[in-house]
Amino acid sequence: MKKRALITGITGQDGSYLAELLLEKDYEVHGVVRRASSPSTSRIDQLLQTSLPPEKQVVLHFGDMADASGLRTIVDDVQPDEVYNLAAQSHVKVSFDQPEYTADVVGVGTLRLLEAVRAFQNRSGKKTRFYQASSSEMFGAAKPPQSILTPFHPRSPYAVAKVQAFWHTVNHRESYGMFNCNGILFNHEGPRRGETFVTRKITRAVGRIKMGLQDKLALGNLDALRDWGHARDFVEAMWMMLQHDSPGDYVVATGEAHTVREFANHAFAAVDLNYEDFVVVDPRFFRPAEVDFLLGDITDIKSRLGWQPRTTFEGLVQEMVAADLEIAQREKLFLEANPGSALKGSVESL
Amino acid sequence: MPNALIFGVTGQDGAYLARLLLEKGYVVSGAHRRGRETQTAGLCELGIADALQLLSVDYHNENEMTSLIESVAPDEIYNLAAQSSVAQSFQIPVETSLINGVFVARLLEIVRQKAPQARFFQASSSEIFGAVDNSLLCESTPLRPRNPYGTSKAYAHHLVRNYREAFGLHASCGILFTHESPLRGPQFVSRKVTLAVARIKNGLQDELVLGNTDVSRAWGFAGEYVEAMWRMLQQTHATDFVIATEQVRTLRTWVALAFETVGLEAEKYLRTDAQLLRPNDSFVMRPDSSKAQQMLGWKAQLKAEELVKMMVEADMRRVVESRCEIQ
Fold it and tell me: Within 13 Å, how many C-alpha atoms sit on residue B98's CB side?
């Protein structure tokens, strides 16, 4: 029998990489998407082609982390062996503008899903393994390097909600014997990263500036230190956690920290430009409470799961710049072919 | 006159806090959840039901909440509203998390926008510490909640600190350890015991059935804890405090004391039932309240022995009165 996986947040960066990984491993992959008049499936369109053989396609279900009965129905229908909860309002700055929504989908939403899985297990007797996407933002102001033993000091409504989801995941494991794992993921990026996140915002701008489509790049705190890995590597860690003999919580990171400034420097240098000529600091992008320094300690995941990152910092930046340069080239061709038209631009205000 | 707004005014702490603030000359408004019968028994028992403005509100309606805060324009806000039972939080985890967690996000956001000068008190709980070794629990102890109630309270605790650090709100959490009184709800174990003792003494009940009697708690008196809440909001700078008595007793001791009050032996009536055990439990809780002692000049005075006596006597009175009514 093929294993069945259910992914919430399948249309996001991590969801799309994870869906590809699980299809390669011969899983039947199901995903939850929110209904909208325009589909937001661009990252998984390659997995939805009806010309593909059925075993290479993902199956989508409409659902929402705010809707407990809908989640319950999906879990009961899919009868998953593994559930990956990647759904979130995942933007830190936005969480300061939408704290209540963030709390509801990130914190309470995880609880709703855990309850749906628990009820399904009770009824069916089947053991479902559960992965929760926890975040290094939960460490916030805690002293680096941060490990699984570091106490949380969350600094945003997003991070606070992720802490709540973390504890619900642990408590359902301890109270009900569920096979639940938290992966505390440090920043993980890639060409599919949303354009409002700083790394992608930088590489997108680099491509457009190189092609003459943009003049400046406005950023917030250039000195923030982050541990940046590749999302493709990190989704493999998620899967490995659920294959282990026993459930547990892990820090997933590279163990190497770089500033936003270094990221920008490398990205501009990749197309022979100097970031200082283009980057302007705009206080609008400062967070109300900053997180200065995140650096993961990965000795634990190396020894327990044998996982380690494959992509280097330089390799990550180069891959993202190369992909965005190609997009910008296509944009330029489009504009030349359609003078006077406007592109669907990136969300520059965020 | 200073103006205070209490969320959860019909609960045990709400009633004692309202009385304290009235005594101090405050104009007191008390919000309680609409949609069920108003539980004013505690306010009546303290004789203050008519002395404050009672406002029924839908806590999950942002519009209504905003109008409430704009119209009251409080100097001090005390958030005591909660689904406050750990045991029930396993039965209704989502509801618990919405009222104890998401509601606080909504409230803080309204305060930030509409009443940023107001001082804000959040009732945190010792349950946010959850699984701890035998060490003392203070304001800097890492949180490790073990049940849906503790997790929702930990969420609110972190969020209040976040609003203080990010926006400079005068917002503080009082990490309240177990606190009891004659107004404690009968589903809580302290009161379950005293009520059972009163009923057994009066021949209305034969036995007292409990789960794990080895749990240790610092049993304090709610009437004193609300004084600490008020003192916290009089501080120049907002910060969090452990509010607790440092006398720790097991539930077994509490039961023994309660039976002694009416001259009965606990062993004859106590039965333990494994069905009443929680899916997982926090066993020992040893608070360190030195920060509150030093900065607030507050220290719990009432001993567990006196507290039990007060509660058993109140329940004896209630049982006798209700029997008279029946006859």
Answer: 13
The residue of B111, B151, B167 whose CB has the most chain A CBs within 10 angstroms, and thus the best one to mutate to test that interface, is: B151
Is B126 annotated in the active site? no
DSSP string of A255-279, one letter each residue: S--EEHHHHHHHHHHTTT--GGGTE
Catalytic residue among A134, A135, A136, A147: A135
Q: Where are the alpha helices (DSSP H) in B124-271?
A: 148-167, 189-201, 222-233, 251-261
**From B97, B125, B152, B289, the catalytic residue:** B125
Contact (CB<8Å) A154/B162: yes
Q: Are B80 and B8 in contact (CB under 8 A)?
A: yes
Under a CB-based contact definition with an 8 Å cutoff, are residues B51 and B257 in contact? no
Q: Which of B159, B164, B277 to mutate to test the interface with A (most CBs of A within 10 A)?
A: B159
DSSP letter at A103? I
Q: Quick check: B220 contacting A, CB < 8 Å?
A: no
The catalytic position among A20, A28, A82, A137 is A137
Neighbours of B55 (CB within 10 A): 18
Measured between beta carbons, the chain A residues lying within 8 angstroms of B165 are: 155, 289
pLDDT digits (tens, 9 = 90+) for B160-171: 999 999 999 999
Residue A216: CA count within 13 A, CB half-sphere: 7
Residue A208 CA, distance from chain mean position: 24
Please indicate whether residue A137 is annotated as part of the active site: yes
Q: How far is CA B277 from CA A279, B212, B281, B282, in A?
A: 60, 6, 8, 11
Rounded-to-5 percentages of helix, strand, coil across chain A: 45, 15, 40
Is-catalytic flag, B125?
yes
Q: Do B101 and A174 touch (CB under 8 A)?
A: no
Shortest distance between the Cα of B133 and any Cα of chain A, in A, equals 15
Distance CA A185, CA A253 (A): 6
Of B88, B87, B62, B70, nearest to B29 (Cα)?
Answer: B70
d(CA A103, CA B100): 11
Please give the angle made by the CA atoms of B150, B154 and B160, to the nearest 5 degrees: 145
What is the average pLDDT score of chain B?
Answer: 93
Closest C-alpha to A126, from A253, A264, A306, A1: A1
Tens of pLDDT, residues A95-147: 999 999 999 999 999 999 999 999 999 999 999 999 999 999 999 999 999 99
